[in-house]
Structures are given as structure tokens and as C-alpha cells.
Amino acid sequence: MSRSERSPLLLAGLLATAGAAHFARPRTFDAIVPRSLPGSPRAWTYASGVAELALAAGIALPRTRKAAALATAAFFVGVFPANVKMAVDWRHRPAPQKAAAYGRLPVQVPLVLWARGVARGSEGRS
User: Fold this and answer.
1) N or C: the chain end with fewer CB closer than 10 Å?
2) Greatest distance between any 2 Cα atoms in the chain
3) CB-neighbour burial class of residue 14 (10 A; exposed 0-12, middle 13-18, buried 19+)
């Protein structure tokens, strides 16, 4: 299997793992839901978990891959405020936790680019 064939499956696996984690350990995700969002943090945690699972399924299927990959890029941009909130909230935690929280911020850029690359790589395929 070539790298271009593995890339969408790896992205789908990342999304599926993250989506499942929202249900396995929701309290972790509840804590980073921005307070400005209406409703309960748990509802947002579950909604984002469902979204990640749906995006994973869409990317795994060649017929829906391009649209799902573009939606994934938008999703990664949309969850950035939660990562900012985590970095702000964790600024006084021990160095390893603080580093993890701050490290999540720049990781969003390659994730967005990866999703866009998967979309580009699926053009003309069905």
C-alpha cells in the first residue's frame, strides 16, 4: 500500500480514536469546552465525538473521502478554541502537562494541511 493510499486511512484512524475517546473519557473533553458555547459541556463533548466518528467513516470511504476530508479540515479549525482554552487553563500546571497543552496549538496546522491533502489526493476518484 502506497503512502497516498495509507494517508486517508491513518487520518480516519486518528479521528475514530479521538471520537471514541470522547465517549470513553468525556470529563477530559468537558473541561476544554469554551464556556461561551450554549448548553452543557457534555453535550458538546458527545457532539464532537460523533462528528469525529462520522468524519472518520467519510474519509475511510473513497466515494465520500473528498467532502469528508474538507469537512475535517474545517472541524480542526473549529475545535482550535478548545485547544486555546486548554492552554490557558493549564498554564499553571506542571511543566509536562503545560507543554502538552501548548503543544496542541501548533499541531492544528499540520492536521488541517493533512486533511486538505487527503481531499486533494481524492480528486477524480470515486
Assistant:
1) N
2) 49
3) middle
Q: In terms of residues, how long is the chain?
A: 126
Low-confidence winner among 1-5, 13-17, 25-29, 101-105 (lowest mean pLDDT) = 1-5
Average pLDDT rounded to a whole number, residues 90-106: 92
In whole angstroms, what is the distance from residue 51 CA to residue 56 CA?
Answer: 8
Judge contact between 58 and 68, C-beta under 8 A. Answer: yes
**Residue 111 buriedness (CB in 10 A; 0-12 / 13-18 / 19+):** buried
Question: Which residue from 75, 81, 82 is spatially nearest to 31, judged by alpha carbons?
Answer: 82
User: Quick one: cell of 52?
Assistant: 469525529
Q: Could you give the CA distance from residue 80 to residue 105 in angstroms, rounded to a whole number?
A: 7
State the Cα–Cα distance between residues 64 and 35, nearest whole angstrom.
33
Q: How many angstroms separate the CA atoms of 5 and 1, rounded?
A: 6
